[in-house]
Amino acid sequence: MVELSKTFELECETLDKDHQRLVEMVNAIVALLDERDTDNCEARVFEFITFAKGHFSREEQLLAKSGYPNVGRHREHHKELDKKMEHLLEFASMVGVNEMARESLKKELVFFVMDDIITTDLDFKEFVSDQQG
Amino acid sequence: MSWSWLNGWTIGTVIVAFIVILPIAAVIFIALTPSDDIWAHLASTVLPLYIGTTLQLMIGVGLGTLVIGVGTAWLVSMCRFPGKTLFEWALLLPMAMPAYVIAYVYTDILEYAGPVQILLRDTFGFATKRDYWFPEIRSLGGAISMMTLVLYPYVYLLSRAAFTEQSISVLDASRVLGRGPYRTFFSVALPLARPAIIIGVSLVLMETLNDFGTVDFFAVSTFTLGIYDVWLNMNNVAGAAQLATALLFFVVVLVLAERFARRKKKYHHTSSKYDALPGYLLTGRSKILATVACSIPVLFGFVLPALVLGGYSIIHFETSMNSNFLSYAFNSFLLSSLVAGLAIGIGIFMAYGVRVRNERLLKIMVRLASLGYAVPGSVLAVGVLVTLGAVDNGIDGFMRDTFGVSTGLLLSGTIVAVTFGYLVRFLAISFGSIEASLAKVTPNMDDASRSLGHSPFATLRRVHIPLIRASVLTAGMMVFVDCMKELPLTVILRPFNFHTLATFVHEYASDEQLGEASLAALSIVGFGILPVIILSLAITRSRPGHNKDAVK
Amino acid sequence: MKGLHIFGLSHAYGDNQVLDNVGLMIPAGEVVCLLGPSGCGKSTILRLSAGLEKVQTGTIAIDDVTVATADLHVPPEHRHVGLMFQDYALFPHLSVIDNVTFGLIHMPKDKAKARAMDILDQFGMTTQADKYPHTLSGGQQQRVALARALAPEPKLLLLDEPFSGLDTNLRQKIREETLEVLKQSGVATLMVTHDPEEAMFMADRIKIIGANGQILQAGRPHEIYYHPNHEFVAKLFGMMNRYEGTVSGGRIETPLGSVASTLEDGTQAQVLIRPEGVILESSGTGGHTKVEVTSSHLLGHDNIVRVRIAGDHNKKLYVRIHRTFEVELKKSLTARIDPEYAFVFPVAESPQAAKQDIIQTGT
């Protein structure tokens, strides 16, 4: 269970809302996995990934429009996360039968949303803050 | 240019170092400003004599201490013979004996009117001096012998450390390749120990240049004697300064040799796991020779003079106590304690100054401030006088201009002068020791302490102080003892009518009244034994195979 | 969030940029390893997190409290961070138990002692409580150092190459022990190491820092090993076999066969093949490249075999085999590539990337 504290805020309404949603989704999935409720896990993860991809493209558009100099690099970063998301789905498909898959999925979801997405997004905090997208 | 390195510690350390360097700088400065054209005069009269005599003295003492120091060190560390464990530390005892004391004692015994010659004449029926030959103790040869006897422990100590450090496998390899103890010594052990030996001999020669009491008593015309002569008899500061500068050349050479050898020592260090050195077992004639060879320096360098002084002290006890012995002892004690305390304080201050800010400039200044040990007392005395004189004149001039009041001489000729002199000379001891032990408190330990909730001050209290306490006390003690023994500086810088035990002994011995001053001399020797005890404990602890403190 | 959060961290020593925009987060109970060559900013991150150095650019927060920015610096003694050093930095004048209670300043003495003995028990060190550090072995000192850091129940634990001072045989055992204690304590842990195997064993997430102070890749050990995104990351785990070529039709040719690539056609590229990705087969099944063995070194668990392609005396390949392989008993051998262990990257053009080309760590 992770919380989005102040240090994770970008101070940009659109993006922060997206992040909030992503964290909520992860927390929900993790909570269910903790209770050993593994039905629909795959579907939930798929839902999460779809939303993440949507967030990526929203973000890229916002950055491009604002003239953020390193848009290209951030786009590359999002592309690299594709492989990770595939893996998350693979794990999700196994949580019913494999204990380790369950453990790893919980961990990877947390790291994915907090480290790969949100912390990396903080790179352009100064750029987007107060820019209500 | 970033000024971030300017902070309290740095400024303080620079100031302190600067003050300590002043006397040496003053000497050079004065010497470079020729006045009275004394150089030419000196060159044509006494300079060749001083150079010649000083060189002879240095060569004589150098060779003597080399042979005795290295020889006994080898015997004690590499061979097994009766009495070896005793000699290991006993060979250090002559260190407790100041050269001038031993000179006075032997002169007393060996001079024409002394007991040895009297016995000789009685036994063989000689009537006058012309009937037999007896070496004149008051000569260059005598001075060489005296200094050799009390200075060889420096070479002994360092050579012994070097020999025992040598990895056993190196020596084994030499034996397997067919070299017996004798050849192993010359072709393997000796070259490996060379840097340590060079350091030892350099220290010996620095002390030789420093000596005043012996050369004065024996009328051996060295530079030091010349400086005293020019200063005390001719009142010529510039002349004394110029001689001092010439002497400094010798010192510089020695210091360079020592530093060079120290650097080389790092490469020669064969540190690995070592077992107890088995030692060659000596038999028959060699066994006896070894025991005798080790006994002689101890006997003549310490035991005999100590016994003589002891005897005299008992005989002259009443007179000694009635004279000003106690007040002189008090003076010595007070002065030495004061300087020891200051040396510790400044040593700690500088050690932390270098630790807190690792600036190159700071390190250089601190190194310079530690040069006092190499500068002969006579040179230092001139420097201190010149410096304090300049300060006094400066203050006087300022006061006269501003307030119309003449302050005259404020610092010169006071206890400040002699304290300052001692401090400059002995600061190296305290700083070196404290710096070395502070280095064992690693930065990681500091960081660990802080991450465990301790502020810098709490870290100081709970980590640093316990760890450097021992070396601070040892340093203080060594400075104290060196101050008690000190003669050259004290003779020139002491306030009027202020005697220390050392100057008291010097004065009375010069007047052929050693007997009355023997108690004082014995006290000095007594104090001098303290460092010997410390060093011999260190020797025991560092004996190969003994569990060393090894903290990661 | 309980744990460590760093973002935007950059740091330079003079002209040397050791950290370039580094970010990471560690939730309580997880272990993150920073892996990279010596001299890069790994240890700097530890020191900045501990408060032993001031942040130039960036933000560090522990348990949601910002402790360091360019304008803010909470001193180390107030951060409740545990530190463990490569040289352990035990206080030589204190016994083991006194070392461990050192950080328990606000606890009454008897409680502190109880807590210390409790922790020492987890390490099996209670019988050594009154001994002094210099009498302990390396492994024992390491345990005491860790116990000392954990005793005050820190919010974050920082480990700087904690096992490099240990004998190889001991290392694995101590790693396991340490990991167990860490997981039990539930503290967020940041560990710095230059040993890839160590990072793989200990970490929930590995972050690779390149020589220029940037984070090159972050992920699970599996990801780092089997899906390196940069030739530097691929080369971290030891000697690689390397072939150059041009991508054409989505593939790139090597003497051992072709490998798929997603790079654009026409790109100058290099194929890096892990030693265990070269498969040697006895009876060459049609079309595979013939190779000759030049030397074979049995390490016990693995066999390192050097082979060269028949006819080419210049290039030798590294092959790693996990099964029994007696060179003397083999007839003709062929080799092919297992695509799982082959990675394609563009050929280095910039000197920066070329520099990373040269840096190789690990065995």
Short description:
The complex is a heterotrimer of chains A (133), B (552) and C (363). Chain B has 552 residues and is mostly helical.
Structure description:
The complex is a heterotrimer of chains A (133), B (552) and C (363). With 133 residues, chain A is mostly helical. Helices cover 74% and strands 0% of the residues of chain A. Chain A has a domain at 71-123. The mean pLDDT of chain A is 89. Chain C has 2 domains: 3-231, P-loop containing nucleotide triphosphate hydrolases (Rossmann fold, 3-Layer(aba) Sandwich), CATH 3.40.50.300; 241-346, no CATH class. In chain C, a hairpin with a 4-residue loop joins strand 16 (289-298) and strand 17 (303-309). The longest helix of chain C is centred in the middle third of the chain and has 18 residues, at 168-185. The model of chain C is unreliable at 351-363 (pLDDT under 50). The interface between B and C is medium-sized, with 22 and 32 residues.
Radius of gyration of chain C: 24 Å
| Rg of chain A, Å, rounded | 15 Å
- The total beta strand count of chain C reads 20
The overall number of domains of chain C is 2
Proportion in β-strands of chain A? under 5%
Features of this protein?
heterotrimer; B: 552 residues; mainly alpha; globular; C: 363 residues; Rossmann fold; 6-stranded mixed sheet; 5-stranded antiparallel sheet; 20 strands; disordered C terminus
Reconstruct the topology from this structure.
The complex is a heterotrimer of chains A (133), B (552) and C (363).
Chain A: H1 13-34, H2 41-66, H3 71-94, H4 99-121, H5 125-128
Helix pairs in contact in A: 1-2, 1-4, 2-3, 3-4
Chain B: H1 8-32, H2 38-44, H3 47-78, E1 79-80, H4 84-90, H5 99-110, H6 115-124, H7 140-165, H8 168-176, H9 181-210, H10 213-218, H11 223-233, H12 237-268, E2 280-281, H13 284-315, H14 317-322, H15 325-356, H16 360-369, H17 377-403, H18 415-439, H19 443-451, H20 456-485, H21 488-493, H22 501-510, H23 514-541
Parallel strand pairs in B: 1-2
Chain C: E1 3-13, E2 16-27, E3 31-35, H1 42-50, E4 57-62, E5 65-68, E6 81-84, H2 96-101, H3 109-122, H4 138-150, E7 156-160, H5 168-185, E8 188-193, H6 196-202, E9 205-209, E10 215-219, H7 221-226, H8 231-235, E11 241-246, E12 251-254, E13 257-260, E14 268-273, E15 278-281, E16 289-298, E17 303-309, E18 317-321, E19 333-337, E20 342-346, H9 351-358
Parallel strand pairs in C: 3-8, 3-9, 6-7, 7-8
Antiparallel strand pairs in C: 1-2, 1-4, 4-5, 9-10, 11-14, 12-13, 14-20, 15-19, 16-17, 16-19, 17-18
Helix pairs in contact in C: 4-5
